[in-house]
Amino acid sequence: MVSPLVNYPCALPCAAMRRLLVFFARVGDLVILSPVFRHLARDGELDLLARPWSRPLLEGQPGISQIHTLAKPNAGWFTRLVHGNEHRHLEPRLIARRYDEIITFAEERQQVQQWIADWAGSAVRRSLSRSQPHAPRHQVDANRNALEFGGFPTDGFVPTPALVVTPAQSERARARLSPLGSRVLAVQAGSSLTHRWLRKQPNLKGLTHQQWGELLNHLFASNAIDAVVLHGSAPEGREARAIRSEVTPRWRERTYDWTGQVPLGDLPAVLASSYATVSVDTGPAHIAAAVGCPLVVIFGPTDPAIFGPRGPGEVEIVVGSAPCQFCHASTLFKRCRANICLTTMRHDTLVAAWERLMARTTTPRR
Predict the structure, then answer these.
(1) Most-buried pick from 122, 167, 310, 355 (CB within 10 A)?
(2) Which secondary structure element, helix H or strand E, spans residue 253, and what is its range?
(3) What is the model's pTM?
């Protein structure tokens, strides 16, 4: 499947701009902001300054000319001393681009703002913000408000997040998935708390291994899928192995552990070529939505009214419940170890979400 390419008319044909957008965020946040990238690129070149994972995910996407990266944008003097001053090495390349405008979010840390001011020269500095009074709660809906806050016209703004998968990327992904069957389910069980080798917290956005096993056994038994691929980073192999152990032996050989085997740059194409995705609230869920893969996404401590994935395909959101919901970004989240908003989710709730998704998915998937 190839995501549609949106062609924007040039807003200022006689005055092409060269802009730098500074956005140090997670994978899901970058996907959510993709409509802004395309809109800002209508009248010139747009470069992105972000964390290193932005390059494999967004390089070659429409609307982005060049990607510059900083691994530790908020580093103080001691960190810069120990890890090397990546800021100082990057500055000459940014200065050489001769930007007309440099765009940051108003919420960006002051030390980053000051660093930009030190080398920006005559470039006009503009701010975006999605945290204004009366702005929509959902981050996708608030993108338009962010542009208006920065003084950018929003006529012709296309709000839906989308990632483009090239025919060559799609062909490679299909070749990888085809030996597994025509209905391969992608599963993203982990999140940012599970891709660390050393952890202080459990996977607060995740289900138990038993819950995953029960769901996958049901889907296999009802002949809803041919195979399952468990995605994630290498450290998430622990979760993948535990989930596979809960799958009935007759279907375990059709449950594949691909953790650490699908680079972020390949993931959009793999998900676009998958039959469907079931994921917790994390970056790959937003990628699946942005490439049009039918998606069931599970929310517990985070609020789908703010972070729910959007895209050109069907998305079914299922939400756990607890008296402390939604605790994300609070002290409750930092102290939580029980994860009752998700660990108490019933099996039939997950199955019903899957069935609603399939009822709405009419486009052939492969």
Answers:
(1) 310
(2) none
(3) 0.91
